[in-house]
Amino acid sequence: MTYGIGIRVPEPVDEVRNRLLDALREQGFGVLTEIDIQATLREKQGVDIGPYVILGACNPSLAARALDVDRRIGMLLPCNVVVRADGAETVVEALDPQVMVTVPEQPALRPVADEAGRRIRDALETLSATITG
Q1: What is the pLDDT along the chain (133 residues), one digit of tens a residue?
Q2: Contact 77, 63 (CB under 8 A)
Q3: Of 106, 85, 83, 80, nearest to 95 (Cα)?
């Protein structure tokens, strides 16, 4: 099983990150956390991996529905979205929400995961269209 949904775009990480935030917001997601992996590894390990940011995206209504099914699902929330440099391109990857169904083996989570996946894919399509369109 692939566990991610992603796109590649020919723009710098900072520009893609800003457009991604707008695209996620259009789909009802807010960003609860932002982790600059590049800065952390540089500071703690003296290693530079290039631009790499993890955004903790959350759609409150979907999170509430998932928590109604299984309170332990919080271990898999929020939806992590990675924005990272790969050569001259930026890669945007999100955890496929179907993982929420397979890990706890809760079929009742499938409709929530389906909607979350659709919204994330729509956000990535919007992002791609604003850059290549």
Answers
A1: 589 999 999 999 999 999 999 999 999 999 999 999 999 999 999 999 999 999 999 999 999 999 999 999 999 999 999 999 999 999 999 999 998 888 888 899 999 999 999 999 999 999 999 987 6
A2: yes
A3: 80
Tokens of 117: 């996946």
pTM of the shown model: 0.92
What gap in Å lies between CA 66 and CA 111, rounded to an integer?
Answer: 9
3.30.310.70, 3.40.50.720, 1.10.8.100, 3.30.70.330: CATH of 4-132: 3.30.310.70
CA dist., res. 119 & res. 13, Å (int): 22
